Amino acid sequence: MSGWVAGAVVVGSLISADAAGNAADTQAAAADRAGATSVEGLRLQLAADKEALDKQLAAQKEALNQTLAAQKLAADTGNTVAKDMLTQQLNAQQSSLNQTLGLQREMFNKQVENLRSYKEAGEAGQTRLLELLGLGGNKDAPDFGSATTAFKLEGFDPNTLFQEFNVKEMEQDPGYAFRLAEGQKAIERSTAARGGLQSGAALKAAAQYGQDMGSQEYGNAYNRFMANKAFQAQEYGNAFNRFTTERGNKLGALQSLQGVGQAAAAGQAAAAGNLAAGGSQAIQGAGAGASAAYGNYGSAAGNIASNLGAGSSAAYGNYGNSMSNAYAGSNATRQSAYGTNTANQMNAITGAANARAAGQIGTANAFTNAIGQGINAYGMYQQNQLFNDYLTKRSTPSIPLF
Question: In the chain, what's the furthest Cα-to-Cα distance?
């Protein structure tokens, strides 16, 4: 009976220990499942965080691309407008320059056309003047070198104007010779009438008559000689003056034409100078305008590029800050998830360990209790047996108690 009671106690203890173990296993399995669930939750949370981070990064990248594209479009539009303005300014300046140069060239051509006939007349006069002076290249030209020919009166030697009056001149005087001849004829007729043509008286009379005639006619012959020389000198001078006047008139007319040509050439030169000066000023003005236009274009392009660079820098800065914030937020989320999961894992591990420890302790306690209860039951049973034996022996004195 005592064995059965002890066995019953042990079996009950075993059942209790097994129940404690099963409960511990169940609790540990629940803790393991809680840990696995925490890991799955961590995985899902990390996946969701990664998906959210990827979407944020993609959205920020798209926003950056759109911002950069918009800035580039604005810069391209600005550059196109600035370039178009530059082209229009250059075209306007070139058109103005062409019109100005065209007007100045037209005026120059008109002046040259107006002066052409005068210039051609001057050139013709100069050519003819050079021919008359014997300086032209056409030696077959009429009167070539005639302007350099010395004055000469045909049939007259101007040196005779300087001859002095002498007896020969007197004897050659027509008046003197006529009167002398007529006087001698009279003497000869008178002498012949008297029959003494060759007489001494006749010869003496003729000699006396010649001497008297020479004395009387010398002054007259001299005066006629000097008057003749004066007349010759006057005629020579008149002829020289006519020659000089004619040559002067001929050369003067050509010189006048030459002067007209020189004035026309000077006018054409002045017109060319005005054209050059006006053209230079117009070209300088166009160059200054083009330089200013290019300067404005450069400034505009520089400002556009500067604004584009600043906008791109700001966009990239914002993009970097957004990425940094996104990564920081994701990192914080991950750290929090990992921290929570770690705590859950620790709690699960601790719970499973505690459950298993509690099961083992419960099993051990059950076994201990069972053994103790068996021992106690067996002891009680033995004690009861001893007590019964004692009581029996007390009733039978012959049997000693111990």
Answer: 282
**Cβ density class 342-368: b for 16+ within 10 Å, e for less:** eebbeebeebbebbbebbeebbebbbe
User: What predicted TM-score, i.e. pTM, was given to this entire model?
Assistant: 0.50
Q: Are 131 and 146 in contact (CB under 8 A)?
A: no
Instruction: With H, G, I as helix, E, B as strand and everything else as coil, classify residue 336.
Output: helix
What span, in angstroms and rounded, lies between the C-alpha atoms of 23 and 98? 109
The encoded tokens of residue 179 equal 């009167």
- The sign of the dihedral angle between the CA atoms of 233, 235, 236, 241 is positive
With cut-offs at 50, 70 and 90, classify the pLDDT of residue 196: low
HSE (CB half, 13 Å, CA atoms) of 331? Answer: 6
Report how far apart, in Å, the C-alpha atoms of 318 and of each of 5, 71, 177 are: 84, 15, 145
**Distance set, CA 289 to CA 94, 102, 292, 293, 302 (Å):** 10, 19, 5, 6, 19
Q: Is the pLDDT of residue 148 over 90?
A: no
